What does this fold into?
Amino acid sequence: MSKIGEVVQRARAAFNLGKTRPLQFRIQQLEALRRMIKEHEKDIAGALTADLHRNEWNAYYEEVVYVLEEIEHVIKKLPEWAADEPVEKTPQTQQDECYIHSEPLGVVLIIGTWNYPFTVTVQPMVGAIAAGNAVVVKPSELSENMANLLATVIPQYLDRDLYPVINGGISETTEVLKERFDHILYTGNTAVGKIIMMAAAKHLTPITLELGGKNPCYVDKDCDLDVACRRIAWGKFMNSGQTCVAPDYILCDPSIQNQIVEKLKKSLKEFYGEDAKKSRDYGRIINSRHFQRVMGLMEGQKVAYGGTGDAATRYIAPTILTDVDPQSQVMQEEIFGPVMPIVCVRSLEEAIQFINQREKPLALYVFSLNDKVIKKMISETSSGGVTANDVVVHNSVHSLPYGGVGNSGMGSYHGKKSFETFSHRRSCLVRPLLNDESLKARYPPSLAKMTRH
Amino acid sequence: MGKAPLGPSVQSDQPAGDAVRMDPFADTLRRLREAFSAGRTRPAEFRAAQLRGLGRFLQEHKQLLQEALAQDLHKSAFESEVSEISITQSEINLALRNLRAWMKDEKVPKNLATQLDSAFIRKEPFGLVLVIAPWNYPVNLTLVPLVGALAAGNCVVLKPSEFSRSTEKVLAEVLPRYVDQSCFAVVPGGPQETGQLLEHKFDYIFFTGSPRVGRIVMSAAAKHLTPVTLELGGKNPCYVDDDCDPQTVANRLAWFRYFNTGQTCVAPDYVLCSPDTQERLLPALQSAITRFYGEDPRSSPNLGRIISDKHFQRLRGLLGCGRVAIGGQSDESERYIAPTVLVDVEETEPVMQEEIFGPILPIVNVRSLDEAIDFINRREKPLALYAFSNNKQVVKRVLAQTSSGSFCGNDGFMHLTLDSLPFGGVGASGMGSYHGKFSFDTFSHHRACLLRCPGMEKIYSIRYPPYSPRKLRVLLMAMEARGCSCTLL
It folds into this structure.
């Protein structure tokens, strides 16, 4: 058996021993995870700096704090979530116990990605551990420093058999996917999402796929452009645009395009100064391949701001493109970089049609002071999630499920939804073994009916 | 309109003019997609009208359906009523009563940072849904998923099983008159047609059938990233404790095993008990069988028949396993198999290797509850699991130390009669669930929505760069003071 196979088998054997069943054990592991994060905050920030040019502020604020909150929330709620849930009974089952019993699935595989390499790898772990599973973690090799850090510190705090970290590239991932899991959660791109689902199909493994897409951002004429543009600039350019829920492109009326450009520029200068390259708060592209890819998307476009890059440091200036042609390359793929195309549309209807001609995105944004506009935009489109009058933040509300639809994914997690995703909800009916008089009517050759209500 | 039954697949040397026949479904699917994009299925009134249409179909053609079920499975009027028509009607009524409530945005608790905002989950239809149904409960397992898919506002392609031929005919020819055909189509046919359908993109696929075909469906779905619910099967164990009244247990066991001639995905598949209990169970089972089906079960109107020659041959082969303690007779001309109990069965024999799906109940001996639980846990997670005991602790222990789609203590699949319980499998027995509101939720995309007020900008400004150690300290102090969540976005 391969080394990876052994690791997975060990996790399964540990799960089968029943170690993870008691809530107390799960809570202890989550508390250990919390300690790990607090004691290694500097290391986490260091890894993020090395991988993505992040700093201790956004390391904490855009990654660590999400996970700490999730842990807090889950520890508090776990007894409630794990309890048997009684359900409404029928007249025939009044004397019985009828409830839904939550159970762990078994061994869960979490495949992380590189853009928020801490959060997207560790946050799903929280739910999987809480639900009582063993968890095999495969961080992304592209965020190398974080992958190494996780492989080092997780075993120092969590049960080593139950929660192994497996590092490596495509061949290791392929190897892992040959093993049988009871749930796979994958964060990444659509193409690999299909491969994961195909691999999962062989074992009938349920999956959660957190993929991506081009998240549209419609800016209505009737809106506070200062506020809108500041929020949009914040969400778009954080992590140098490498955020799956970042607004990918703007749709607006041509009459406000220039204002939008000016106000975006203003916010960008407030955030990152005149030369973002000198800002400690501005990120870098993960690797040369993506750097080349994003730079290529600007070719032939009207650059209203930015448009430059430095291959040596993988820096790309915050860039705004105007009057973008929907057929051009920058409108064909998820940008995942600090380039904001503006596409002009003449009406809300045209914007809605534009959005609906394309794959369902992970997120959709609409800025307007007019409730009717917001309502119409939401009801006539589909997406994983929506925020109106802001960007990104629906992601941070525990009680909202986080996931995609169509090409942007399937399934969801965060908060209670994580617990449900990583549990089996088993329907239970327990009757007393009384004698049969009361049930006689259902047996043949009687013709009496077994009615439902 | 409905689709006419399709002929054999087009040969590769057919002339180019047969392009339309080569993809016989393109037009239908395009029509349904266009209707969906135009928003036809969104309004509650439209969905309710479809559900009412379904209800009328059941009422007006009850006899036709009963005859079809009798032809396909020799199903008695009682079984047709109880397990097919009544159940489906209940689901329709439940959906009609609750449709608007289910469709409503579901408000969610907010954290401190979003107190002034509106946060809710919007239930949206996926779009074009494919429902692939099996032959054993061809009305129930075709129409109950349809109820959920229509209630959730989807356009639906229904692929009934070709094995339950008479029922398929009624569904293909009569049902479409009752549901708006711009949003609904029935596609009859066999594995070829199913294969062709699966090459197309659907927004959701709901499949009931075997794990083997479940894998094929999920692989096909993967090409389009289509989410799926798979209602599969397995060998549903039934543990019978020494501490029980054998006749009560035998009555329940027999009824749920031989219902629909054993062709039920949640039927008790095999019994685990001690040799002592086996000795007490056997005469009790014989007594129950005689009481239900008479001295000559073959002439009982309450016992059905096997669906096809292929399954009949398969089941007849299983009669050779272990030793026949009760029954064992069969007649090929009628596809009749007597209610049978097998004993002295080895784990390695075919009857213990595959889902039986017939009126054969093997008894496997175990020496203790621990051994029974180990036996169960060595195998794939089943769709259902049963435990009989006067001692509730025993029942609870079986529940706690195993896993299965669902569980019933001291009875057979009664839990199916509660629409407040989700019905589905786990592991090899399936993924996802449905019935009642769970159907509506299964066929809906749950879209997370946050509507922020455009004001309050001063408060949010703390999140913007440029960052400083001071800003971080201020934020951390604020969070500490509140002692609570503050992804202060």
Summary: Chain A touches chain B through 110 residues (CB under 8 Å).
